[in-house]
Amino acid sequence: QVQLQESGPGLVKPSQTLSLTCTVSGGSISSGRYYWSWIRQPAGKGLEWIGRIYTDGTTNYNPSLKSRLTISLDTSKNQISLRLSSVTAADTAVYYCAREVLAMAAATDWGQGTLVTVSS
Amino acid sequence: QSALTQPASVSGSPGQSITISCTGTSSDVGSYTLVSWYQQNPGKVPKLMIYEGSKRPSGVSNRFSGSKSGNTASLTISGLQAEDEADYYCCSYAGASTPWVFGGGTKLTVL
Description:
A: seven-stranded mixed β-sheet; B: mainly beta
């Protein structure tokens, strides 16, 4: 069974870059059957889709974040990375990585999430 | 890309049925059957309950059903149980360049 685990700094200063990694075990990120997505959730608020990447490196981003966002793959480490630049307090949230099954067009597997706080 | 519109809260008594609506536009819900629904308990990870508008993943109770009419998708839970109390989010495909948009979430209270 696939497992996803997010990791990265829990505290980022305003204007700096937020960097997170999602390590996948129990399955290969090179499989053509999946997209790998990032989703975030501010405390007490709803889910926001951030973006996704396919095994060939093709990405789709939320337009509201696109200018600050980079999602990439490291197939040698079976990891997906997220970089969000010029962060503000509004980027404080729990960040989830998730596996989206192409055939279902839905995220069937999620990491536990990691809280990132933007504060000086 | 605007969030889909869901009621902030719904409630029902055990055994009853409830429906949560999810209203989008002709650019998302209205154009595609690719609506999914997620259940999230407090402090927990979202769980997929419905995909492609009306399909249930393996292991999800058949008390959960999904449908769509025009720009509005709906999640119906029949035979309400205490364990159904949670937040529910809809999510719709919105096109190739910006594939996904979530609803604001609905808190379901089982009275």
